[in-house]
Amino acid sequence: VIASDEPQLRDHCERGGEPRNLKVPRSICFRAMFALLLAAAVTCLGSLVLGQAVLALCGARRWSWLAPPVGVAVMILLAVPAIHLPGRSATVAAMMAMLVAAGLVLWIRYPAHRPPLADLLAGLPVALLVLVPFAASGHAGTLGVSVDNDMASHLLWAEAYRSNAVALVSALPPAYPLGPHALAAALAEGLGARIDLAFAGFTAATPILLAWTALASLHRVRWLGRVMVATVVGIPFLVAAYYGQGSFKELLEALFTLAATLMLAGFQPELRWRRWIPLALMWAGAVSVYSLQGLAWPAVLLGMWVLGRATIRAWRGGLSEAWRELRAELIPGAVGLLVLIVVLVPQIPRIEKFISEGESATTSLGNLVGPLPGWEAFGVWNSPDYRLPPISAFGAGMWTAFVLGLVVLGGLVSLRRGRWMLPMAAGASMLVWAYAVHTRSPYTAAKALVIASPLLLLLAGLALVERGFERTSWWRIVAPVLAVALVVRVVDSSWEALRFSKVGPTDHLVELRSLRPLLRGQPTLFLGDDDFIQWEL
C-alpha cells in the first residue's frame, strides 16, 4: 500500500487490479541475468589479471594459480578508499579498468604469465553450479532472501558507498568492514548495473576463484584429476549453502585462508625478498572483509609455519641453523608488514571502532536453529538445509567417515612429500572452530566451519590424485573409483543446497521504480512488511 498526496497516483491505486504495464517483461529478466553474469566475469578477469600482475612485480616469471586470491584482495583494497575520492565508485571503476588493461598487456607480451586454458576450464563445473539457484528460480536477484535477509543492509551500504546522497540518508556503519560493499559498488558503477546484481555476481565469482586457487597445489596431475580437486574444493556443501544464502564474507575468508596455506606450504613462485607482499595484500583483504578477526586464521597459520620451520631446522642442524632460517625472513617479513600497514591506512578508524565495540553476544543463533556439527565441514550432508540435521543419520555418517578417511590419507601423503603445512593448516582450522564454539556465539562458530571446509576437501582430493602410492598397482584401480564417489557425493550435496537456495524476486522493485515519476519529490508513506524496502525505495 502506497499513500501519497499525488492525485494521479491516488487515482491509479484506487482503480485496483494489477495493471499490465507493471508486469516484469522478459527483456528485463534477461538484462538482469546478463548483468549478473557480467559482474561475475569481470570479477574473475580482474582477479586473474591483477593478481598475476602483482606476482610479476614481485618477481614471478610464470603464471601461478595463487594469482586469483591476490587479485581479488587488490580489487577490494582499491575500492575501499572510494568514499574519500571525487567521483567515489566511478573513479575507482575507471582506475580498475585501466589497471586490468595494463595487466592484459602483460599477458599479451609475456605468454608465460597467461593462465593455461585447460586449467581455466577446470573451474567450469563450479561455474555451472553457482548458477543453479538462478536457474531453479528462473530469474536473477539477491541470494538468500527469506533465509538470511542480511543482504538488505549490505545492499543499502553498497549504495551508500556508491552515492553520497544515499549515505546522507542512511549512514555507513562506523565499525563494520565494508571491503566487499566497496567492490560491489565499483562493479555496479563501472558496468551500469543494479547493485543487487553486481553483488550477486561478485558473490558467484568467489567459489570459482576457490576452485582455481586449489590448482596451485597440483603438479603433474592429469586434467581430470585437476577438475576433480577444483570441484570439491570450490563448492563443498557448506560453501554451497552459505553461497546460496548470500553470505559472501565467509567465502572470501575461506579463499584467503586456502591461498595463505598454499603460499606458506611452498607453492608460491620464487619471489625472493618480496615474497611476503602477496600474503600481506591477502591478509589486508581479509581485514577488509572480516575486520580484525579476519587475521585469526592468518595468525594461526603464520605461528604454525614459524614453529614448524624452526623445529625442522633445529632437528637437522641445531639451534644455530634454526636461527639462520628465521633470520633470513626478517627483511622480507618487514617489507610485507610495511605493505600490510600502508594498504590498511584508510581503514584504521574503522578497525579501531571495531576493537572498541568487540563482540558481546555469545549465545546468538542468528538464522540457525542450533549449533552446527563439525561433520558438516567434510563436504557431504544428507539434507538440503545446512541448518537441519541429516535426513538419514546413518547415511550421512557413512559418507562423512569416507571423506574423513580420505582427509587422513591426504594428510599422510602430504607429510610424506614434505608438505606438512597442509595437514597442519586443516587441523588448525578445525581448532579455530572448536575454540569459537566455546568462546563465540553458535552463529559465529558456524562461519569457522565454512572457512575450514575447502582445506579439508583439498586434502581429500590430494589423497586420490597425488602419486603417494604409485608403486601399488591396486591403488591405480581403486583411486579413480574413490575419486568418482567423492565428486558425485560432494556435488550431489551441494546441488541440493543450491537448488534449495532462495533468490529474491525483483517484480516489486521494478513495479516501485515504474512509479518513480509520480513519487519523485512527493511525501510518500509505504505500509508493508519488506526487509528490503529501504534499499528498494
What does this molecule look like?
This protein has 537 residues and is mostly helical. Helices cover 68% and strands 1% of the residues. The protein has 26 helices and 2 strands. It has helices at residues 7-14, 26-57, 67-79, 89-109, 117-122, 124-129, 132-137, 151-162, 164-169, 179-191, 195-214, 223-234, 237-244, 248-267, 277-290, 296-317, 319-327, 330-343, 348-357, 393-416, 421-439, 442-465, 473-500, 507-514, 516-519, 533-536; strands at 2-4, 524-526. Mean pLDDT is 88; it is low at 1-6 and 12-22.
Helix and strand element order = EHHHHHHHHHHHHHHHHHHHHHHHHHEH
* Number of E-state strands: 2
How much of the residues is beta strand, in percent?
Answer: under 5%
* Low-pLDDT residue intervals, each spanning 5 or more residues: 1-6, 12-22
Estimate the mean pLDDT confidence.
Answer: 88
Approximate helicity band? 55-70%
Which sequence of strands runs across the widest sheet? 1-2
Distance between the termini: 13 Å
The major pleated sheet works out as:
2 strands, antiparallel
Q: Which structural category do the helix and sheet elements fall into?
A: mainly alpha
The number of helices is: 26
* Approximate shape: globular
In angstroms, what is the radius of gyration?
A: 24 Å
